[in-house]
Design a protein that fits this description.
The structure holds 2 protein chains of 2 kinds. Chain A contains 9 helices and 5 strands, in the order ααβαβαβαβαβααα. Chain A has a 5-stranded parallel sheet with strand order 2-1-3-4-5, with helices on both faces. Helices cover about 50% and strands about 10% of the residues of chain A. Chain B is of the alpha/beta class. Chain B has 13 helices and 8 strands. Chain B has an 8-stranded parallel sheet with strand order 7-6-5-4-3-2-1-8. Classes of the chains: A alpha/beta, B alpha/beta. At the A-B interface, helix 1 of A face helix 8, helix 10 and helix 11 of B.
Chain lengths: ~220, ~325
């Protein structure tokens, strides 16, 4: 087989596996997801994303999406949390902890402190029997059947699945908060989309007040 | 009611299932001492043991008495420490039911408390047509749950005029809804693996093991793998499986990469004739007392020196 042929086959396999990982989540969105949305809507605080490694990076992206779609959020590094950053968490906040295995040591370590503060804890986790899932108020199942990367060298499908679930959460919250284009302009003045929104405010049909929406990236 | 609870509680393990060679005496019976030696070597590193499988376990050539003897010895040696998967398929539905009945009786007689799953390759003796009705019946006859085994390569080598070599996806969807069926060992294309996965989505407790070692080493299933190589290198297979499932934390990822490459090299050495080569290597390493195979097994006239040298070189022997 030609080298180029194998490269393309391999790349397609990875995309198929990751796409399948997201599609598998569709059936699993149920009452827990609804409860998570209600918990966040009812909280007076912020949504705090936490996780380490690739899951931490996914947490940062979900936090950014929540911020730009009307849900105040920030990221908390679990290791820094133990060295003072827990001060940014209050009882009114909802913490979303991301870990595919549910055994991430740094996350497990901060759970007693989060409980002590009295915050609500939601797990994005692939293992419902793990310590993280057991200790959380609610677990959103983001487990996948197959990773695209061999030997556990880097999480691939599992982080994609967590990211997609985070997007689902942000978009549902956006709708429930009656987020408007005016709100979006306020949070997103930069980039191509911000410029377009500022110059065409009130004229464009891209985001109509009361309908909500999300950008295509800037 | 009591039986239903039992079925619900019994879930096949996640992780590494060793597809164990069947150690035979030169006279043909099960070699209990060698079985003990094999199990003691593998058990600390595996999550389950597959016995009498159709390929490396030579299950197609083991008669009923031999199968019962193998299960009985294995239960005594494993003693609930790890899950047992036992291949039960016969040449026909009737023969499979007969095998199942004899094995179920032996589990009951021994009052075995550990997990036992019946591994069945239905397309070896039954077409896709009527398969759901067949499993409704056969699972109702069993006290222990089933794991299915889909291996198109196995069906092809059978001397039968079979139209299909895979369980049809819509049939699997029906089978996946049965409480008595807990998982599937899958060999085949990635496209079919995705289709199967899609049809089993609603069953979050269902295990979908990789039956092919190469597939697992490239794109691992999060249920785990059924491995022949774990007969000779159980520790490394255990580490690689744990790492692939995100359960192994190593400070040095390059070590994992090296171990993965090593397992691929190992696979290349034995894949031509896994039963013959692995048995001969285990015999040369004094793990089993005889490299004897069943008369129906493809003869191996070569020597297992490359495998033994490879294992010794990497301190795996």
């Amino acid at each position: 087989m030609k080298r180029g042929g194998r490269i393309i086959i391999q790349a397609r396999e990875v995309l198929q596996i990751e796409a399948q990982g997201i599609l598998d989540l569709v059936e699993r969105v149920g009452p827990e997801f609804e409860r998570a949305v209600e918990m966040i809507l009812q909280s007076k605080g912020r949504v705090i994303l936490t996780g380490i490694g690739k899951s931490g990076l996914i947490g940062r992206k979900i936090s950014a999406t929540l911020n730009s779609t009307g849900t105040p959020s920030h990221y908390l590094h679990p290791a820094e949390a133990l060295h003072g950053d827990l001060g940014m968490v209050s009882a009114d906040d909802v913490v979303i902890a991301i870990s595919n295995s549910g055994y991430t040591k740094e996350l497990i370590q901060i759970i007693p402190n989060l409980k002590d503060i009295g915050t609500t804890l939601i797990a994005f986790c692939g293992n419902p029997e793990s310590p993280l899932a057991r200790e959380s108020h609610l677990t959103i199942d983001v487990g996948v059947e197959r990773e695209a990367c061999p030997l556990g060298l880097a999480p691939t499908t599992s982080t994609t699945a967590a990211l997609a679930m985070g997007d689902a959460l942000a978009v549902v919250l956006l709708g429930r908060r009656h987020f408007t284009s005016k709100d979006f302009r306020r949070f997103h003045p930069g980039g191509n989309l911000g410029t377009m929104l500022l110059s065409k405010a009130g004229e464009t049909g891209l985001l109509s007040d009361g309908e909500g929406g999300s950008d295509g990236g800037t | 009611m009591g039986r239903e609870v039992l079925m619900e509680e019994r879930r096949p393990p996640k992780g590494l299932i060793v597809d164990l060679v069947t150690p035979l005496c030169d006279t043909g019976g099960i070699d209990k001492r060698s079985l003990n030696s094999l199990l003691r070597r593998a058990l600390p590193h595996v999550d389950g043991v597959l016995l009498g499988s159709p390929r490396i376990g030579e299950g197609r050539a083991l008669d009923l008495d031999c199968r019962v003897e193998l299960l009985e010895h294995a239960m005594a040696l494993i003693d609930g420490e790890r899950a047992i998967l036992f291949w039960i398929s016969g040449e026909s539905s009737e023969e499979t039911k007969e095998i199942l009945s004899a094995l179920e009786d032996r589990v009951s007689t021994c009052a075995y408390k550990g997990l036992v799953f019946w591994l069945d390759s239905p397309l070896c003796y039954h077409s896709n047509r009527g398969l759901s009705a067949y499993y409704e019946k056969i699972t109702s006859l069993a006290r222990n749950p089933f794991v299915l085994y889909n291996d198109p390569g196995l069906i092809k080598i059978l001397d039968k005029a079979l139209k299909r070599t895979n369980i049809r996806t819509n049939i699997l969807k029906e089978l996946g809804g049965m409480e008595g069926i807990k998982g599937l060992v899958f060999c085949g294309s990635l496209v079919r693996a995705n289709n199967y996965q899609r049809c089993l989505r609603k069953r979050s407790d269902f295990r979908l093991y990789d039956g092919g070692e190469t597939r697992f080493l490239e794109h691992p299933s999060m249920s785990g793998v059924v491995s022949m190589g774990a007969n000779v290198a159980p520790e490394i297979w255990g580490i690689i499986t744990s790492a692939s499932l995100g359960m192994w934390k190593d400070d040095d990822p390059s070590r994992l990469f090296e171990m993965g490459t090593l397992l691929k090299d190992l696979l290349r050495i034995y894949r031509e004739n896994p039963v013959g080569i692995i048995k001969k290597a285990l015999y040369d390493l004094n793990v089993i007392d005889s490299p004897a195979c069943t008369p129906k097994t493809e003869p191996f006239h070569g020597n297992a020196t490359p495998l033994v040298e490879f294992l010794s070189h990497h301190h795996l022997g």
